[in-house]
Specification:
Chain lengths: 375, 330, 330, 375
């Protein structure tokens, strides 16, 4: 590890060490005090299911069933820890790798695959689970989150003290995204409006082939205070610490305390996407190093030591994961090609003469082949 | 019906006020639109009357303005953004092109983004660079956006309210050179009950020899051309497109089938401008009726020139009349 | 002359290598173009051979890439920027439209900005959204930019080097769907001594019944159409525009004056696409020679659709042949 | 004054108080130690000339001779102080209000007026005086400056120790500009490249009608460290302090120490431009307060007290200012309308078929009126 620059591990909030030992932190230990064995097992289960799903999706891509897949391998703790800190009314604006967060929102993970199979640009109703569509244009959605949070303020859903009403908004983005103008404008707008927003940056150390040192020269968490946004660095492979720092940031947001920047320092254990080949730009030694710090392993070790992780529970989750895998395969294979005419649907919410005319022409054109005219 | 005589700017101001009164979810966002009332005073008095939460002076960042407007719309608001000048819309181009336009489609109709982006555009005001441009085609090419431009106070008043009421994102191009021109506006009529002004063209003056197609700032020019041509015994039909997207050529084609000749005029450069599409479409629709190719008059393929030369650059009375002569001489 | 058989991607790679060798001021900038060699491997091996100062992995910020390239050019460098995919060029739209395009004009010719912006564009590769678009017209409308698109390996090799040598900013659109198609490339010829490929069209195949105009990815389609049509006894002339700006219709008009019919094809949506300008211009130039209106075939006025539907969206063999039939039936 | 937020005057480097007294600063006093009476008089003269020119241009706009004018009234110390710290080989990327800097670069101030008269979009050869054209699109030029500085690095003109060779680049922008994505991307690129750049922000407290509190909630100088760019806040109405902090930042840049963000806390004493009406958004009391802290007055007081500002010198500068005023009026009135055909010149550096055809058409069209045909 470097001790300076954006890849240092200095100043990370940690509650569970890589070897699975609990450590105390004066500010954050109280934030996880209420998590009993069942809750901890729940986090473990979440991570295991998400990883299984991720593995399954990767395999499906290899089999040609998906056009592309972006793994979240290695980032399960950051995603599940932060996601489980959310309240139902909170709203999430993800990037494209937040499968773990999606799961915590109650989105059936299989729904994520329509996009990657190429049958839908979205795939779910964001308002059902308060989890917005994936956004592929890096950083753009951080402004949407900020605006949404400004709307929450206008709705009077901040600082009322009513835990079922006060609402926070969370947006997820990567280390690479911090270089984009939009992400910095989001910090400006969030700060000036004191918006109830958590900017959750997963510094997984790589933006495709570029290490975080190509995007910044100091830790990304340093960015916040320069905009008047408090920030915290957390060990992103420690699900408890991620839960704790997010819970605190959410509470600040909901109570009217304004935005927080969270930098979760983690590692993209897989390729950027199934199209990528990390061997071109990073070492096996680095990958090994991080495999030793697998976010699931450390929780496994800890819960095994405390006796919370019984064989029965493991078997139960294993079965559940198998079922999810099976369900995922079936779901994907059943996702047929959409009707061609859907291409023309929902371009506008109200009629548009050009779309209507083109659609009419196209339908007539298609129909002309019905009689077998196609060359 | 009570008609009031007012400037184009005041007509928009009045329309914005009505929209703010009518729907508590409507809000205005932009640079200097609050206490100052906007650099053109189009939002004059609105911050005072509706407060800083509904008439928001934003940070100086156009991408941020449009990006946060998208988020506000997702939360149920109807943001109306003001971009200070045409030349400053480009920092927001990504948010408009990849986000605003596509959200409805990407969500298969589950999400609407009723966002209006007001852009004072066009030249003729003696300004420095970046303050006189006509970028409308750069938005009209992108599906998912409606692109409209009113040409007189009455239409401005109606169209801004219909744009705000629309569930679709609307790029609302205001011909700033016409802001101080006056017209009668029926401020009592309910624009939401009136016929849609966001779907098609209107014939402003009928004629038999040539069809002159314009939008926004060039509509007034076209009407002057029709007057001048009339004095030379030529009958010019003037069509105001009103909307660039959708482009509804029905009214134009109907006219061209009668006149057999067509001239399109806009301030934007001719090369790859909106007139190209009008010409291509009209030629396709009216091929056997055309006595001459559709001619186009507009800006040249140069950056908008210095103020002292802008009147030579802009398609004024003389250049349009020349095109009318040429199309008739064919 | 030594010709080598290579892919389109390799032809650009070779052209970039020659430019880096030829002029120490040439440098490449972009996301992932170094160790990775770009997501399409177009810059494969160049960082290794020319070092990280000349083949620069930039921060993930397109406005920053183009903005700093402008500064580097002002200091005497010749930056070649890679934008990773078509749909990600829009954060740089402001720098391109208000800065890159206008600096030479604003400085009355005192400053040149020899910047090339490479954009892999177009569809057909089964990608997710924002990875298959054809935004070339959004740049061609702005004066000061040259907008070009090679259609085969030889042209790619020559054009990239001529673009880098040009004192003007060049938007260099690479048909990514053709990256893996092979062709013969004369790698010995000095492209800077060769005729300019940045100024006009070329006739790729001569014919007598109809003129088919294409650029970039649709040129190969057009050639296939010509083959298919030939088997039905129809003689199609194929013109590759090569450059969108300048748009040089001389070759097209010359052809249309012989064939009397014209079809324009591109992947971008038809509405306000480049085909509109070609149609409008050709109609103006060849009015009395046209037996039928110029027809256009392209994308529809929708966002680029999901991968599973892209082949219906794109102007493929069938749709172009249908247009050829229709234009001939007129 | 507020004591927090972006309008606090906390932590400003100051060497000359508003009442004209010299104060010491451990880091910065040495930076001005070499400025003798003549040098100080030179700074005073610069500010007086710039102000006279500014007043003259404002008057010319009122008389209809200029389309627009953007006054630098009140910002003379920030501009002259920083500008006089530059070496000849340094390169400046200004915004549109840096008339004081232009003067220090040796640009004849009258050249600035072509743009504002509407006869040119630029008006001078930037390479003559290493002062780029004005940029009106807020923030855009900060990236150009960053790129230029990256070019300087590649030219080996950093850290050689040769004072005639080592080169710094300075870019000027306002408080409003800090909200723009581009300015933040400039910080990213400058930091990552360790570029020899000084980002000089004149916080004149207003972006047209919006106070800096609409753009930020902490001092703008705080922005730098969050990107790994050291920063300093300086009293922007103190010409000595501005000189000192800029000199230090330039030295860091030239020696290879990388970028610095300078926030000069000043006040826009005039309207935004001649089109603006500040009475709509700010109080006369505020304007009065700042008139008491006029940057020229404090140097006048100090130099008068030390005896450096003799009556003879004042008379000399007064005469020089009168001559500049006269010359400005004459210059502007003589600036004729450019030939129409120049509209088509320099769109491209090499021939472009469309421009050529349009130009040919236009010339023929114009010629057709020569015979008196014009309607
Ligand atoms: C505006 C934009 N530019 C480029 C891309 C191509 N791209 C996709 S992901 C990616 C890297 C993102 O890195 P990071 O923000 O760290 O997120 P991660 O993938 O590591 O989760 C790039 C360059 C894009 N999607 N959007
Ligand atoms: C991108 C862009 N948006 C809007 C404008 C319009 N505008 C011109 S100056 C200005 C305020 C600038 O404020 P600041 O950066 O503080 O500089 P100052 O004028 O105070 O020197 C605005 C909004 C512009 N020129 N560019
Ligand atoms: Mg990353
Ligand atoms: Mg300011």
């Amino acid at each position: 590890m470097t001790t300076s620059g954006p890849l240092t591990d200095d100043g990370l909030v940690q509650l569970l060490t890589p070897t699975g030992e609990r450590v105390d932190h004066p500010d954050y230990t109280p934030r996880v005090a209420h998590l009993d064995d069942e809750a901890l097992r729940g986090l473990w289960r979440d991570m295991v299911l998400v990883r299984r799903f991720d593995t399954e999706a990767t395999a499906l891509q290899r089999q040609g069933e998906l056009g592309l897949w972006a793994q979240c391998l290695g980032q399960e703790a950051a995603q599940v820890g932060s996601g489980r800190a959310l309240a139902p009314q909170d709203y999430v604006f993800p990037s494209y790798r937040e499968h773990g967060v999606a799961h915590t929102r109650g989105l059936d993970l299989t729904e994520l695959l329509r996009l990657f199979r190429g049958v839908d640009h979205g795939g779910w109703d964001p308002t059902d689970v308060n989890f917005h569509l994936y956004t592929l244009v890096i950083g753009s959605h951080t402004l949407h989150a900020t605006g949404y949070a400004m709307g929450v303020q206008r709705d009077g859903a901040v600082g009322t003290g009513d835990p079922g009403r006060d609402t926070a908004v969370v947006t997820y983005f990567g280390d690479g995204a911090t270089a984009q103008g939009d992400v910095n404008e989001a910090l400006v707008f969030a700060a000036v409006n004191n918006a109830p927003l958590v900017l959750f940056c997963q510094n997984n150390q790589w933006a495709i082939s570029e290490p975080t040192t190509r995007q910044a020269r100091v830790p990304l968490a340093a960015r916040g205070p320069g905009f008047g946004v408090p920030s915290v660095r957390v060990d992103g492979n420690d699900v408890l610490a991620c839960y704790a720092v997010t819970a605190e940031a959410l509470e600040r947001a909901r109570s009217g305390g304004g935005p927080t920047l969270v930098e979760a320092f983690t590692y993209r254990m897989g390729a950027h996407t199934t199209s990528d080949d990390p061997s071109r730009y990073r070492s096996a030694a680095e990958e090994d190093y991080w495999r030793q710090r697998d976010p699931i392993d450390r929780l496994t070790t800890y819960l095994t030591a405390t006796g919370a992780l019984t064989d029965a529970f493991r078997a139960e989750v294993e079965a559940e994961a198998d079922a999810l895998g099976e369900r995922t395969r079936t779901f994907v294979r059943a996702l047929g090609r959409p009707e061609t005419s859907t291409m023309f649907e929902h371009v506008y919410a109200t009629p548009h003469a050009v779309v209507d005319a083109e659609r009419a022409w196209f339908e007539q054109y298609e129909a002309s082949f019905a009689g077998g005219e196609q060359r | 019906m009570t008609t009031q005589r007012m400037t184009f700017a005041k007509a928009i101001n009045t329309g914005l006020r009505k929209a703010l009164e009518h729907d508590p979810k409507v809000m205005l966002m932009g640079e200097d639109i609050g206490a100052l009332g906007g650099v053109f005073r189009v939002t004059d008095g609105l911050a005072k009357d509706f407060g800083g939460d509904r008439v928001v002076d934003t940070p100086l960042a156009e991408s941020g303005i449009v990006g946060t407007a998208i988020g506000l719309a997702l939360r149920g608001y109807r943001p109306v953004c003001e971009i200070q000048f045409d030349g400053f819309i480009f920092p927001a181009f990504d948010q408009i092109t990849t986000q605003l336009s596509k959200m409805h489609y990407r969500s298969r109709g589950r999400l609407n983004l009723p966002v209006v982006i007001r852009v004072p555009y066009g030249g003729g005001i003696g300004a420095v660079e970046h303050h006189s441009e006509s970028p409308e085609v750069l938005f009209a090419h992108t599906a998912g956006l409606r692109v409209v431009s009113p040409s007189d106070p009455q239409d401005a008043f109606t169209m801004i309210q219909q744009a705000i009421a629309s569930p679709d994102p609307v790029m609302f191009f205001e011909p700033k050179g016409r802001y101080w021109e006056k017209g009668d506006v029926d401020t009592d009529a309910d624009p939401l009950a009136a016929a849609s002004t966001l779907d098609g063209a209107r014939v402003l003056r009928s004629g038999t020899d040539v069809t002159l197609v314009a939008h926004g700032p060039t509509v007034a020019t076209a009407l002057k051309v029709a007057d001048a041509a009339a004095s030379e015994g030529r009958s010019v039909e003037v069509v105001d497109l009103r909307t660039i997207s959708p482009l509804d050529t029905t009214a134009v084609a109907e006219s061209v089938r009668r006149t057999g000749r067509c001239v399109v005029v806009h301030e934007a450069p001719v090369l790859y401008g909106t007139g190209a599409e009008v010409a291509a479409r009209i030629t396709e629709e009216c091929f056997y009726h055309l006595e001459a190719p559709v001619l186009r008059v507009g800006g040249f393929h140069t950056p908008y020139p210095v103020a002292k030369l802008e009147h030579e650059y802009l398609p004024g009375l003389d250049r349009v009349l020349d095109a009318v002569d040429r199309v008739l001489a064919h």
